[in-house]
UniProtKB/TrEMBL annotation:
The gene is pdxA. Its cofactor is a divalent metal cation. NCBIfam families: pdxA. Transmembrane segments: none annotated. Keywords: Metal-binding, NAD, Oxidoreductase. PANTHER family: 4-HYDROXYTHREONINE-4-PHOSPHATE DEHYDROGENASE (PTHR30004), D-THREONATE 4-PHOSPHATE DEHYDROGENASE (PTHR30004:SF6). GO terms for molecular function: 4-hydroxythreonine-4-phosphate dehydrogenase activity; metal ion binding; NAD binding. Its EC number is 1.1.1.262. It holds the Pfam family PdxA. Belongs to the PdxA family. PdxA2 subfamily. This is 4-hydroxythreonine-4-phosphate dehydrogenase. The keyword Signal does not apply. SUPFAM superfamilies: Isocitrate/Isopropylmalate dehydrogenase-like (SSF53659).
Amino acid sequence: MGDQSVVRFYLEKHSATNLSINVIETPSEGRYEFGTIDMIDLGIVDMATFQIGQVSKVGGDAAFQYVKKVIELALAGDIDATVTNPLNKESMNLAGHHYAGHTEIYADLTGTEKYTMMLADGNLRVVHVSTHVSLREACNRATKERVLDVIRIADKACKNLGIENPRVAVAGLNPHCGENGLFGTEEIEHINPAVEEAKAEGINVFGSLPADTLFSKANGGMYDIVVAMYHDQGHIPLKLLGFVYDQAAGAWQAVQGVNITLGLPIIRTSVDHGTAFDVAGDWSASEVSLENAIDYAIKLAENSK
């Protein structure tokens, strides 16, 4: 999904003569052959005037329209899964599409009310009670109802990945899970009651657990998935593992991990990094996270059949 003008521009710029483009109207028309790029051309971007690596309305509109189209194809059953690259949120909002990110677009266009973001890299899988909100707002959103919903979604996601009896670990919100109310009462009032209700439903759940040691345990294999209370609590440990910067080389040695939207009626996986406007168009961006996302999409699609 995209614009053939953009793809042709880069194929010519980098002399990629071993690749060809096959413009199609529907997925059923694809050749699906090595060396052939099957693509639905939306014809939005004019490379004669487009500014590479810059915030722009046309770039934001194109990114949104590509995502919107693949969602429509998935809802219609024309494709089994969707995989997205990063989009620039400022550009998208500049174009009049007022969303915080991919997750919110998918939720809105599929009519999904209960959803969450999952990040995955190796043994570590993390879902979030809240994501793109202020830290103050994130604390307010750590309610019993929301935590319970995310525990249920996490359990189902692991089963969809082929894990028969998932071990779901729930992080605390406060340092040391509040120390019985000394450092906060969210665990007592909301998080622990949600865990107990999930246990009563038969979910193999543990918590609340101190976040400062929980992620190391999960990465070591003690748990199959972690329920994080807010964006950075879950993102930092996962990206610390998946993103490796080489100071001597002045470049990223590894950028890996997958972003999956759970709770949707369709499959959506994505890379776990941003648009990297600073290296846009120079052929140096890492493809590893995209490959991870494609692999996860295939696995989820196979298990859903």
